[in-house]
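Following the same procedure, backbone shapes were mapped to integers, yielding the entry below.
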Amino acid sequence: MYSHARRNVLDRIETNGVRISRVHAHACLKKLQDWGYLEKTLIPDQDNEDIIMPLTTSFNEHGDEFRAIRIEFPELEVTAWSFAKKNEQSSPYDEFAAFVRSSCSTTKVSFSELEPLLPKKWERLGQLLLFPKDAFQGQKWVEFIEEQDGRFWPKVAEIFGVQSIARQQPIANTITRDAQIEMLLGNSWVEFKQHNVKFGFDARKVMFSSGNITERKRMAELDVSDEVILDVFAGIGYYSLPIAKHGRPKKIHAFEMNPHSIEGLTWGVNENELGSIIEIHEGDNRHHLPMFEQTADRCILGLLPTSESVWKVCFDCLKPSGGVLHVHMNVEEEKIESWVEETRHYFEQLAYEKNQDSTVQILHIEKVKWYAPRIRHVVLDLHIVSP
């Protein structure tokens, strides 16, 4: 039994926390941050081999998001704990809430009306702060922001230390799944550095998932020395750029049909000085891929929710000696095991139909992130071994 109530304990605060083993602490911390459940003003604590992380007051143990976290970390335990406060004045959220509170003293809208509507989540992409699509919506927010006479968004940018602010909008129902955001301040071009790799893109036109950071890191750590790699849905170079920067491949052929993604990919290739390694192929990969039959050591099939449309042609692109396929897919949690076996069997059948005495080995299964409640973004690494 536990409570959301807080009380001071000398220089410590008693609140709810989650207890988890040290080995899973980093991954769990990232999930709590992604969902906005990590209390940033308090310091995580250690108890023997366990780490206890503080939760925000917005935490809901029975919400879909937290249930998803508990599925991934079954050992996770909610507990009351006394945490030390960080040696800092306040978090950006606290400062933002204080700004709204003080501004309400000169407006018709009261803070009690806005406080429940304060956004609890946001995403930072370089110098762009991206809020959820429902943030600052509704008549009360409209009235409050209008009464700030143009001062509101610049002040929010100052508090969060960014130059631009945007609000998410639904992904466009197009073949290229263009991003759609509403710019509230500044411009939409984003630049940032991750794993010593520079990325750039226009956030109004291109999707970017921060939740894929672990997969980008994993790709960067692969030993692909002297390999020829096909990145079949390259985007802005989510995987091509880290691999080319750190993996020492011979060549990466990056296929992309979205002109806005190509703009970001070209920028990334130039900024990271990878033009001698990455060759960009514009247009529908179904037209390009047949020209690469039996040339590749490795294919990255990074399209969600599924890349099934190119499974066969990518199999044909592997060298006669075989190679590796990185198959991305959105899969229901309880069906991952059966999907893995079905996918392996599919490629075994392809080998049989081509009269190849090949074996299909499962190298790795990576659960990248939750795509939706009960649905995972999964990557299956398959090794096609030919005699």
